[in-house]
Design a protein that fits this description.
The radius of gyration is 22 Å and the shape is globular. It starts with a helix and ends with a helix. The longest helix is centred in the middle third of the chain and has 14 residues, at 174-187. The protein has 17 helices and 17 strands. Strand 15, helix 14 and strand 16 form a beta-alpha-beta unit. With 403 residues, it is of the alpha/beta class. Strands 5-6-4-1-7-8 form a 6-stranded parallel β-sheet, sandwiched between helices. The protein has a 6-stranded parallel β-sheet with strand order 11-10-9-15-16-17, with helices on both faces. A 3-stranded antiparallel β-sheet has the order 13-12-14. Bound molecules: adenosine-5'-diphosphate (ADP) and magnesium ion. The site of adenosine-5'-diphosphate has 20 residues, from strand 14 and helix 15.
Length: 403
């Protein structure tokens, strides 16, 4: 993979450099609640502006339906980027239209323009190769060189991630280079014990990685929404908890394989339950009940791991040499269900192991709950991307930078 250092050695003064970033930040209305992903691309942008490039930054935000939708404008992320860079950035209200062309034409050396959400165009995410290629060609008209630095999107075969990288001379930015370096440490020659903690809400997305981790990890700790499908698979009732009934056979197969391979597979022993999902806006007290994970009442749902499980997981993390964590242990957005996630974060902070946190919400949780980012080995900006890498899949956005 050629990196941006090689590009800088060749010189970029006056060149238009398209930076495919991942500015897909969580927002509450017009307020950005966690700007980690914007900060993560700063080294690349600063290096390019410092070398006199005309920098064109593009990203997706959320999942608009292939047409402009003001709920997903990148305008606010663009102005935060300007604040963090300490200089104004131009914002184009379209992606390949007249605003984009005039914003780019107006750039002096060392200046930055941000384009509107790439996903306002159907061509960005299209499964039709020709439609994607057409959109990519129109993006290519805006730049001379491509720098891929949107790690959170490299598992997507999207026009700006894959096709465009193959149209222009392309290089990996610092973020992607760092992320790939870290993930390599989790796959090649990993230091043991290697402990993996998985949680979050996207159960089916995350079951796939277990398949691969059963060959790599020494211990797998399960929390969050996916715990309930495993508990159900073991014959326990889970009430109205998150459940993917169709995944039960897969869960059973994993449990059997873990046993055969001697991989320790740990499920919650106690959980906090409630009849109602908490109000994340008002944060009104949720008054959960603590129950054994084998005794969840029929009308209740599990929303966090309990205190015994927190202790158990901390002890299972204490002797680790390598830790990968993806997915909150509970609905951490509500203070009554944040303790499980906090306990795991604290265990990682206390551990001398090489610790990696992956996943948009997990990374945001760590920051929102007040942990110092530097206390972790690495906080990945990509959830799906890091999981697919660990699954051993080919990631289109990385493959395109290899060619
Ligand atoms: P990441 O972005 O880190 O990969 P996910 O997107 O999979 O994580 O999941 C994060 C979400 O999971 C959070 O919004 C959290 O509220 C939710 N969650 C965690 N535990 C549960 C649970 N037991 N029931 C429902 N939602 C949960
Ligand atoms: Mg998420």
């Amino acid at each position: 993979m050629k990196t941006i250092d090689e590009l800088l050695r060749q010189g970029v003064e006056g060149k238009r450099v398209f930076v495919r970033a991942d500015l897909n930040v969580p927002q509450d209305g017009t307020t950005i609640t966690d700007d980690g992903r914007i900060r993560a691309v700063l080294p690349t942008i600063k290096a390019l502006t410092g070398a006199g490039a005309k920098v064109v930054v593009a990203s997706h935000l959320g999942r608009p339906k292939g047409e402009p939708d003001p709920a997903f404008t990148l305008r606010f992320a663009a102005s935060r980027l300007g604040e963090l860079l300490g200089r104004p950035v131009a914002f184009a209200g379209d992606t390949i239209g007249s605003e984009a062309h005039s914003a780019v034409a107006g750039l002096d050396n060392g200046q930055v323009a941000v384009l509107e959400n790439l996903r306002f165009n159907a061509g960005e995410t299209s499964k039709d190769d020709a439609e994607r290629a057409e959109f990519a060609a129109r993006l290519a008209a805006l730049a001379d060189v491509y720098v891929g630095d949107g790690f959170g999107a490299v598992h997507r075969k999207h026009a700006s991630v894959y096709d465009l990288a193959r149209l222009l001379p392309s290089y990996a930015g610092y973020l992607i280079a760092t992320e790939v370096g870290v993930l390599r440490k989790l796959t090649d020659d990993v230091k043991r014990p290697y402990v993996v903690v998985l949680g979050g809400a996207k159960v089916s997305d995350k079951l796939g990685v277990i398949d691969h981790l059963l060959e790599k990890a020494d211990r797998i700790l399960i929390g969050g929404g996916m715990a309930y499908t495993f508990l159900k698979a073991k014959g326990h009732e889970v009430g109205i908890s998150l459940l993917q009934e169709d995944q039960i056979p897969v869960c059973l197969e994993y449990l059997a394989r873990a046993e055969k391979k001697g991989v320790e597979f740990v499920l919650p022993v106690d959980v906090l339950v409630s009849a109602d999902f908490p109000d994340l806006k008002t944060k009104a007290p949720a008054n959960p009940t603590l129950v054994a994970s084998t005794a969840i009442p029929a009308d209740q749902e599990g929303l966090d791991i309990g205190p015994q499980t927190r202790k158990l997981y901390a002890s299972k993390l204490a002797d680790a040499a390598t830790v990968f964590w993806n997915g909150p242990m509970g609905v951490f957005e509500h203070p009554d269900y944040a303790e499980g996630t906090k306990a795991v974060a604290q265990a990682l902070v206390d551990s001398p192991a090489f610790t990696v946190v992956g996943g948009g919400d997990s990374a945001a949780a760590v920051r929102i709950l007040g942990f110092d980012e530097d206390a972790f080995g690495h906080i990945s900006t990509g959830g799906g991307a890091s999981l697919e890498y660990l699954e051993g899949k080919t990631l289109p956005g990385l493959a395109a930078l290899e060619d």
